[in-house]
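Appendix B. Chain record.
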Amino acid sequence: MAAGHARYVFLFIGDGMGTAQVNGTEAYLAALEGRIGTSPLCFASFPHSAFITTQSGSHGVTDSAAAATALATGTKTYNGALGVSLDTLALASVADWAHRAGAAVGVGTTVTIDHATPSAFYAHVPYRSMTDRIDEQLAASTLDFAAGSDVAKPSADCYQALEGAGFGILRGVADYNKVRRQARRLLLLQPETAQRRSSGSLPYAIDRQPGDLTLANICRAAVDYLAGFERKKRSERRKGFFLMLEGGSIDHACHANDAGAAFREVCDMDEAVRVAYDFYLKHPEETLIVVAADHETGGLVLGRGHYSQHLQYLQYQKMSAEAYTHHVGQLRQTLGDGFTWELVRSDISRNWGLGAEVPLTEKQEQRLRKAYDDIMSGVAEESRSLYAVENALANTAKQILNERAEVSWATGSHSNSYVPCFAIGAGAELFHGRMDNTDIPKAIARAAGWEITQ
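Structure tokens predicted for this chain:
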């Protein structure tokens, strides 16, 4: 490794995190302080920044698989493809380049470890839906550390195959602390208590319960393990590490147009970045941190035409719209005839602030009552986004809170907006101006002195 090259490389990917998601989160934090402006996130304060274009090789609006492939391999591909070119040839990723250079390698996410973004760093499949093959390739990969909520659709022998490939499968931080040094490779998953609630992702930050795994937990565990791995494997000339961590639930919240959940997810990823930043402060000449995004989700707009913003209202949302759907279902089942409009109205006020800290118009009040009446009469339709199902009450409450906060959304899918990139450390000056997503892994390799191969 040449002098001046990054020895320790962190790549954070905020899935669905466009410029409005970052600016909106900083404006929300400032609003909590009672002022107009921004309260800077750690990563958005890094000294080097760029705007990234995200089109895929087949579409003007990329999906997560093609975008992740570009960020991982430096090559455009078609929507739906993972780790393969337009003609389905396997592509080496920056994780492979790091491994070949002697670095330890880790990949972590808040969603499943075989979801689109993490998979692009170790798998090669023509369609992202081929999770069985992705899981087989995870077992056969060169990853030293992997983490996520779980695998998406585990086959009967999936976990046995991973263990047979040398992965010690741990669930939660407590499990990690007990046995982290006993396995040749580590797969850190969420505790079974959280898995019973949802195996598809870690709980949203807004829905988190004590003991739930977080991206910051994953970052600490990865740094601890990979740094220890470097020491342990010096005889094999291991040199530093590469770690990709994804804030995958930003995308989920934005698909659902849930601003309260989305801004908290950006804050949550920032907490993980702070763990990496603390490491950087100890090794400033040898560490590179890059924070990027794969695409924007939701077409988020910070305004509704009134030249005003009331993002402070979002603080009164106590759970995601998805979680509130489950909450309402449990209330109705438990209370039976006691599930009255008066009770529901009070519950909405308590969990969304609507009609209490957040003022309502008469029409907005009527919309909430109609949602309740439609549920009780059996005519209410559920609202579906890519990753969530919401009942009429949850969806209506979310929409009204967006209105009161002066936030709007153009779509429930992705957009072709620029996404931001921020960098600090060794080689951070390479991330500037306008870049394409395919430039990101190549710049990382250049900063670290890794050979780019296919």
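Further analysis of this model is presented in Appendix C.
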